Amino acid sequence: MFITPFSLAQRFVGTKEVDGHASNPQVLAMLRLDSDWPEGDEVAWCSAFVNYIAWLCRLPRSKSLAARSWLGVGQAVTLANAEVGSDIVVLNRSGGNLDPSVAGPGHVGFFAGVDGTNVMLLAGNQGNSVSIASFPASRILGVRRLDP
Considering the entire predicted model, what is its pTM? Predict the structure, then answer.
């Protein structure tokens, strides 16, 4: 049986931050894979989640907690050619800059499909947990295929 990054990521659905001063050790492990500064799980960890899954699958990864860092990983594909299983989507944050060459806030997750004018992402830090959520496709900065 072939395990895709998406199928592995699905195993983490429901993993969430811990309220208050405590932290989820699994989320901290994801964050600290590439950075030693996070003291707790109440920081943006969508990129940490994608990096963690890519690391487990031995795929190229950004090694950064910045969501937009994924724009330089893998091969660019169009949304029309995006595949559930191996592709990731990088979004700008609501109201953020749509220029992918500009550093700024973003969001990253595994492509889970298209629903009308929205793109579905399986990602971390969506409502403080790993979940599937819908975002306007107009926020897409790039779609990347993580080939080994």
Answer: 0.93
